[in-house]
Amino acid sequence: MATFEVTLKDRSVERIGEADAYQQEGPMTTFFRTDGRRRTVDSWSVRMASLRTAEILIIRRHEDPAAEDGEVTPLHRRSA
């Protein structure tokens, strides 16, 4: 699984762990966990977090090798 690092307008950084994909849903960008075999967002995908799209500057995807070992990467906020 991957971790997405999202830089917001106020330069704070949100990290969304255990997510595989994201897509815009109205005014929000939502991050999803998929079944792992395919990275398609469908009715079986689990919503992990949503952020207001207008506040997002950058989205970076980082592969998380620790998550493959069963370790969980939580959502957390970090000041820039």
Keywords:
single chain, 80 residues, mainly beta, four-stranded antiparallel beta sheet, three-stranded antiparallel beta sheet, 1 helix, 7 strands, globular
Overall description:
This protein is mainly beta. It has one domain: SH3 type barrels. The chain is 5% helix and 54% strand. The chain has one helix and seven strands. The strands form two sheets. A four-stranded antiparallel beta sheet has the order 6-1-2-7, with no helix packed on it. The chain has a three-stranded antiparallel beta sheet with strand order 3-4-5, with no helix packed on it. A hairpin with a 2-residue loop joins strand 3 and strand 4 (28-33). The longest helix is centred in the last third of the chain and has 4 residues, at 65-68. 18% of the residues are buried.
Helix proportion range = under 10%
Relative strand content: over 45%
Uncertain runs with pLDDT below 50, 5 residues or more?
none
Report the radius of gyration as a whole number of Å: 12 Å
Task: Write the H/E string, N to C.
Answer: EEEEEEHE
Give me the number of helical elements: 1
Terminal residue distance: 24 Å
How many distinct beta strands? 7
Q: List the domain count as a whole number.
A: 1
- State the CATH architecture: Roll
The averaged pLDDT comes out at: 84
Q: Could you say which structural class the secondary elements and strand pairing correspond to?
A: mainly beta
Global morphology: globular
* Main CATH class: Mainly Beta
Largest sheet: 4 strands, antiparallel
CATH topology: SH3 type barrels
